[in-house]
Amino acid sequence: MWPIRSPRMKVPASEITPRALFEQRRLLLSALALPATLSGRAAQARGAPLAATRSALPGALVMDKPTEYRDATNYNNYYEFGLDKDEPARQAQRLRTQPWTVQVDGECLKPQTFGLEELLKLAPMEERIYRLRCVEGWSMVIPWIGYSLAELLKKVEPTGKAKYVEFVTLADKAQMPGLSANVLDWPYREGLRLDEALHPLTLLSFGMYGEVLPKQNGAPLRLVVPWKYGFKSAKSLVRIRLTDKMPMTSWNAAAPREYGFFSNVNPQVDHPRWSQASERRIGEDGLFAKRRPTLMFNGYAEQVGQLYTGMDLRRWF
Ligand SMILES: Nc1nc2c(c(=O)[nH]1)N[C@H]1C(S)=C(S)[C@@H](COP(=O)(O)O)O[C@H]1N2
Ligand SMILES: [Mo]
Q1: 79-119, pLDDT tens digit by residue?
Q2: 68 in a known ligand binding site
C-alpha cells in the first residue's frame, strides 16, 4: 500500500527512494543498537497457548489450507514497525504488551477502560479460520482466536446515536521505529459502520494458530474483518470509540481516492493502481503458481452481503 501524491502526506512517495529507505533503516537500526542482519530468531519464539473451541458460526471456518505459521508471521504489514514485509517480525519484538488497556467510550451508556486480563475473560474464545486479503493483491488463511467484537460493544451499551465505531491503535515512538516515517498520520485509525462492527464475523482477536498473537500480527489484541481489505483489521488496539459520524481513517486521510471508508473486498472495483480481480496466496509461490480469483466480499457474501443492499459499491468503495 502506498499513498501517492496525497496532500496530507508529509513525504511524497516519489521522494521515498529505496536508497532513502535503506538509509532511514540503517539510522534507525544503529539508534536501536540492533545489528541490521538480526535473524528472525526472536520472532520465531512461539507464544503461550490460548485455549479456544472451534466456532459454529456460519462462514467462520473456511476450508482452504491454512497459511504456514512461518509465512503468516514473517510477511506482515505493520507500518509502525517498518515498511518492509519482513521488518515487523524483527522490530515488533520490542513492543510491551503488558500492562495493556483498551478504552471503550463515545456514544454509549457505560464507557469503560478494560484491562487485558478482563478482556481475555469477557467471552468464550473461539477459533475461526478466515481468509485475509490485502489490497496489495495477496491473501492468507489464518486460524484466529478471539470472540465477536459485538460481545465487547454490548457491555458498554451503545446509545441510539451510535452509528459508527472508530478504532485507534498504539502509537508510541519509544517502541515503534516506524512512527518516524511519515507515511501515515499516526496513530493508525480505522472505522466501521455500527452494523458491520456488530456483525458476528467481526472478530476481536487475541491469538492465532493456538497461541497468543505474535507481536508482528497485532498483539495483544486486534480486529479481524474478513470481508474487508486487510488494512481495516487494525493491530494493537488501545481505544474503541462509538460515534455518530463516519470517522476519518488513516488510509482514507492519506489517499482518499485509493482507500475508501468501506474497503469491502470487491473483484469488480479496482484500486487505482492494482487490479482486485485476482490474488496470490502467500506460500503458493513459484513460477507456475496460479493466481486465485478474488471472491466478492472475500467469499463472505452470503453472510455479509445484506449489509450493503441498495448501496452503490463503486461509489462507496
Ligand atoms: N496498527 C496497524 N494495523 C494494521 C496495519 C498497520 O500498518 N498498522 N496494517 C494493516 C494491513 S495493510 C494488513 S494487510 C494487515 C496484515 O495483517 P497480518 O500481518 O497479520 O497478516 O494488518 C493491518 N493492520
Ligand atoms: Mo494490507
Answers
A1: 999 999 999 999 999 999 999 999 999 999 999 999 999 99
A2: no
CB under 5 Å of ion ligand 2: residues: 77, 134, 230-231
- Nearest-atom number in ligand 1 for the CA of 76 is 19
Question: Which residue puts its alpha carbon closest to atom 24 of ligand 1?
Answer: 234
pTM of the prediction? 0.87
pLDDT in tens, 274-293: 999 999 999 998 878 899 99
Q: How far, in Å, CA of 137 to CA of 281, rounded?
A: 9
Domain ranges of the chain: 52-308
> What b-and-e string marks burial along 274-309, b requiring 16 or more CB atoms within 10 Å of the CB?
eebeebbbbbbeeeeeeeeebbbbbbbbebbeeebe
**52-308 CATH fold:** Sulfite Oxidase; Chain A, domain 2 (3.90.420)
User: In this structure, what C-alpha cell is assigned to residue 100?
Assistant: 495493556
Q: 192 and 258 in contact (C-beta within 8 Å)?
A: no
Read off the DSSP letter of residue 225: -
